[in-house]
Task: structure prediction
Amino acid sequence: ATGWDLGIAMQILWNTIHGKPFYYTYELTVVPSGNFLALHFPLLFLLIAPFYALFPKAETLLVLQSTALGFGAIPLYMLAENVLKQRFIALTLAVVYLLYPPLQGINWFDFHPEAFLVPFLLLVYYAIESNNIRLLYISVALALSIDEYAPIIVASVLLVKLLKMFKIKKIRVHLIILTTLSMIYFVI
Result:
């Protein structure tokens, strides 16, 4: 680790759990207020903060990132099994996902909130394919919490699924609602 992104995340989390939400000092010339939200919008940090409060170390962030990326194999397996109806192929896809060099690459260098987008989007896909509306809303909310550009990616995924599944009335309404909310969130 170079300490840059990891150090920024550690300082933001430390300050957040000690009463100065999203405050950091690394780039005061760029962000004179010291509020990281003026530069990026990772609400995910609010979900990570309780874990960091228990174990305020760099390792905590790296373990959370690794765990999140590894967790992505679960919705991928369930998605593949649901669509393909073949456990062996689903398991093979999950293993290939875990061995995929770019996935490992993001995990080997520093801490990046963006790494959490991968498993959350896989969860979105699984929720859509399994018609699990509650999980769909939760996974979209988690994906939107990553950063300021996440709503564009989430809305794109939802729009593609909406176009493919437009005839399925049960899911169509929810996809329209979530796509609209994602774009409104992006604008805000």
